[in-house]
Amino acid sequence: MAPQPGRRAVVRVPVATLWTAPEAVRPIDCPALAGSPDVAAWIAGMDRDQLVGDCVLTQLLLGEPVRVTETRPDGWVRVVALGQPAAKLGADGYPGWLRAAHLADPADAGPSSTHPADAGPAGPALSGTVPAGPAGTGPSGPGPSGPGPSGSGPSGSGPSGSGPSGPVPAGTGSAGSGTGPAGTGSAADRPLTVDVAHTALRAGPDGDAALTGVVLGTRLTPAGPAVDGTRPVRVPGRPEPLWATEDDLVPLPAERPEAEKVLAVAERLRDLVYVWGGMSTAGIDCSGLVHLAWRRYGITLPRDADDQAAATSRVPLDAERPGDLYFFARPGRRIHHVGIVSAEPRGGRRRMLHACYLTRRVVEEELPADRTATLVGAHRV
After folding, report:
1. Torsion angles phi and psi, residue 289, rounded to 5
2. CA–CA dist 126, 256 (Å, integer)
3. DSSP assignment of 212-246, as one string?
């Protein structure tokens, strides 16, 4: 069934790219627009400047829910990505344009949801909002900063406005509700998440690959017990389960993870190419790295850096710990960059892991002088 305005749909491809507008796509973007998108080939074909084209807003992974708001006869649909909170852009998710061919009806996704935006309430509250930062450094600052040595990705883009949204663990209410860890039930019954950079889903336990390029952090619904080291899972748009290598999957945790475990996931992406709006193990941006690392443990943070700051708790500088977050803003502007604290500070020297606009890579480094000059705070999820 074709997506319909006012109804929900789910992503049926491993990685779907959300665009600012259909007219904004470039010839180089064709591999990402195909019915079976090849995101790795798309990224490999771009030069240094094309990697940061601002026509890309974010990316959605297999099974992510959207709300359709508009359709066009040329195969484009405007949606709200319900699993990627963006308080400044809308109350219930990140708006943008997808190819209709990348979506399926939720009824084709199996009898149970793997995403917090489609689940019921559970668990105690996680951290709430943070106190207001220095003038012009928070989400209500006077406009986005452009890319540059300290800039990165779509973080901080778009109009300022509505209030913050908190982290949302899997199995909770609507995105942005700030409710706390779920994943209840036995490990055999809980939703699964991909725990390797890429995996393939097969037509049977010994079958050929039916869906390749399924990435880290993708949530899957189990469809039965394991057979010979493979596990059947439900996949949107497919009437029969596909089979995943059991060692590539882990149950979503029932408890909130320690921040250092989240840091360890992000460290596995070191040297990954920087892509504006990227949120997969083919390419990623600064806030996408933070979102994806926490997503692996079933926690949904907002998509952009300024909203992530608003959804987390400020800690005094020099009290930060590995796994906390550093936020950056230029004077009089909104937060535009985020990194993950990778070591305890020593003598005023700080280190972080981040997707770096300047190097076009995920790097772990000591904060250079120009970064330190724009550091506006440390936060804890």
Report:
1. -60, -45
2. 9
3. EEEETT-EEEE-S--BTTEEEEE-TT-SS-EEEEG
Does 295 or 111 have the greater pLDDT score? 295
Identity at 354, one-letter amino acid code? H
* Residue 366 dihedral angles phi and psi, to the nearest 5°: -75, 140
Q: Please choose, from the candidates 145, 181, 168, the residue with its C-alpha nearest in 3D space to the C-alpha of residue 306.
A: 145
For residues 137-157, average pLDDT: 37
Give DSSP secondary structure letters for 243-258.
EEEGGGEEEPPSSPPP
Q: Which of 94, 117, 133 is nearest to 312 (CA)?
A: 133
Distance separating alpha carbons of residues 57 and 119, to the nearest angstrom: 25
**Is the distance from CB of 86 to CB of 304 less than 8 angstroms?**
yes
- The bridge status of strand 65-71 relative to strand 168-169 is unpaired
Residue 133: partners with Cβ closer than 8 Å, 6 or more residues away: 309, 314, 327, 329, 335, 376, 377
Helix (H, G, I), strand (E, B) or coil at 30: helix
Query: What's the DSSP call for residue 197?
Result: S
Can you give the pLDDT at residue 92? 87
**Sign of the dihedral defined by the CA atoms of residues 316, 317, 320, 324, in that order:** positive
Token duo for residue 268:
């596995």
The residue among 276, 309, 324 whose CA lies nearest residue 137 is 309
Predicted confidence band of residue 187 (pLDDT cuts 50, 70, 90): low
Q: For the chain, how many residues are written? A: 381
pLDDT at 118: 53
63: left (phi over 0), alpha (psi -120 to 50) or beta: left
Please check whether residue 161 is in contact with residue 88, taking contact to mean a CB–CB distance below 8 angstroms: yes
CA dihedral over 158, 327, 82, 161, signed as positive or negative:
negative
Provide the pairing of β-strand 283-284 with 279-280: antiparallel
3-state secondary structure of 379: strand
SS3 104: strand
Q: What stretch of H or E contains 259?
A: helix 259-267
